């Protein structure tokens, strides 16, 4: 047997991609302590904390308006499943955290969707989970956005269109009223 055949199977790692945006980043450099474009390993039993207190938080945001611990992420495996997930918890008593359209108050937590936008104050973070198999650790991969994330992901409105807004000229049977036919008639 060759050494290639004897080598252990390579395990894929769950990676959390996070793209950060703040309108004053260029002036205030609040993301200067984050390692962008470099994957970082985090032990599975460790909680990834984001905030301004560098003695407690692994990911530091240099802004006095950010709480000492703004939010935390916990990596876990769903019960009776091989699926790995992240749970996000708002750790700020003063600032609400929004995950997509779900607003979290202090100590509220939810599962992080596989792709979502996290907002608090003027901060916008696009989070995307890349699935893996490792149970020992996960990775984070941070990116910096040049433009607002909410603006970039403008989705078409899902608002219903009122019937009056539909022009009758767009239908070939204009002017005819609908005819009701009994299913037994031919």
Automatic annotation (TrEMBL):
Top-rank lineage group of the source organism: Eukaryota
Domain annotation FHA: ranges: 49-121
GO biological process terms, semicolon-separated: innate immune response; positive regulation of canonical NF-kappaB signal transduction
UniProt keyword annotations, A-Z: Cytoplasm, Immunity, Innate immunity
Pfam family, one: FHA
Cellular component aspect of the GO annotation: cytoplasm
Subcellular location: Cytoplasm
Chain positions covered by the region annotation Disordered: 165-186
CDD domains, A to Z: FHA_TIFA
Biased composition (Low complexity): 167-177
Keyword Lyase in annotation: no
Family according to the record: Belongs to the TIFA family.
Listed name of the protein: TRAF-interacting protein with FHA domain-containing protein A
Source species: Chunga burmeisteri (Black-legged seriema)
């Amino acid at each position: 047997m060759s050494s290639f055949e004897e080598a252990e199977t390579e395990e894929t790692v769950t990676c959390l991609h996070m793209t950060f945006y703040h309108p004053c980043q260029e002036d205030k450099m609040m993301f200067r302590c984050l390692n962008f474009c470099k994957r970082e390993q985090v032990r599975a039993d460790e909680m990834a904390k984001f905030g301004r207190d560098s003695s407690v938080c692994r990911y530091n945001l240099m802004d006095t308006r950010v709480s000492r611990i703004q939010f935390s992420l916990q990596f876990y495996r769903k019960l009776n499943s091989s699926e790995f997930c992240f749970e996000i918890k708002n750790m700020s008593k003063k600032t609400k955290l929004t995950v997509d359209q779900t607003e979290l108050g202090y100590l509220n937590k939810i599962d992080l969707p596989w792709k979502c936008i996290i907002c608090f104050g003027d901060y916008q973070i696009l989070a995307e989970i890349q699935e893996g198999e490792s149970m020992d650790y996960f990775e984070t991969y941070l990116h910096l956005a040049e433009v607002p994330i909410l603006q970039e992901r403008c989705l078409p409105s899902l608002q219903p269109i009122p019937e009056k807004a539909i022009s009758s000229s767009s239908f070939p049977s204009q002017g005819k009223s609908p005819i009701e036919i009994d299913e037994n008639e031919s």
